[in-house]
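Re: beginner question about structure tokens

> Can someone show what the tokenized structure looks like for a real chain? I only ever see the sequence side.

Sure, here's an example I had lying around. Input first:
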Amino acid sequence: MDARDWHRQATTPAPTWPDPVSITDFDAMSRECRDDYFRRLRGAMNAAIVVSKPMKAVKAHLDEIVATNRLRPPGAMPMVAVTAPFSAGKSTLLKQWGFGVHRSVLGDEVHAERPTWSPKRGVIADWVPIVYVTLMASSSIKEINALILLYLGYPPEGLARTTTTRVLHALRMHGVQIVVLDDAHMLRSTNAQGRAVLDYIKFLNTELGEVNNGTVILVGANLESTAILDDPQIRARLTTMTIDAFQISTVEKKAAWQDLLATAANRPLEHLPDAAPDLFVTKLAQHVWRRTQGFVGEVAKLVTGSVLDAIHDRRSVITHDDLDAVDLSDRSIDGQVDAATAARKTRR
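And the corresponding structure tokens:
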């Protein structure tokens, strides 16, 4: 992905949901109209992003830190780390949040196919408020620079010192306010190169703060167990936010789980008008958790798949068997097996 891809994704409107119809009205449609309705509904449901209350809190905290950094004197700014288990939705969340920031910063220029601005009199450059790159395993300084340069449309070749100078120029030239380094757990600090990369991230944070009062955001799986968050200089400026899977071990956690299910299922269930509105929140809540282990992305897939199957089959009821018929990730299947094994051991 480069800056043009990011701009296109950030400005492409979500698919439009069709108006709900009853099973009777659906049956009365022509085959062509039914196929069109189902196609549009499938597109809208699969494109919808489920954002839980904890995720909304993370977005609000990110907004606050970025806005405050813009008010600070130039220099090294507070950094952010967003961590979560694998497949907990951290990258999706950061992209959706970043798209909103991108649109807000650009203002009217957001409608341009290629937004531009004037960093200084007589100069016109692409306007790129956010750089979002995904790191590779054990990335070196040169490789990180290459990713940033490619994102901004520059040639990536050159020595580390040369590409670093080019990156700093590009950050200033294109008005970059936020640099997101995704898959930060891929970084290693157990050797000299790894430690040099951590030093480079600190340097990048300082320079971005000097030129644009910008913010560096690290995103990765289980960052709390990596050496990245143990670096004293990084920790001195770091705010860590954690996104986790939902649990149902207490009354409070069950309530939060049901709130998530309501968020995920309310709109899809509008297209099953004869179904109970609390179908997922009450009757299916525990079974949904067994299948998903509380991971938001898996919940979205399970709700979407089961509702679409019900509409296709002209049913207003969704059962445990219907949930079991929806394909989820191998991680979800492994989790179900582990939970069943643990339950058998407990019964013994």
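Each token stands for a local structural state, so reading them left to right follows the chain. The chain has a mean pLDDT of 93.
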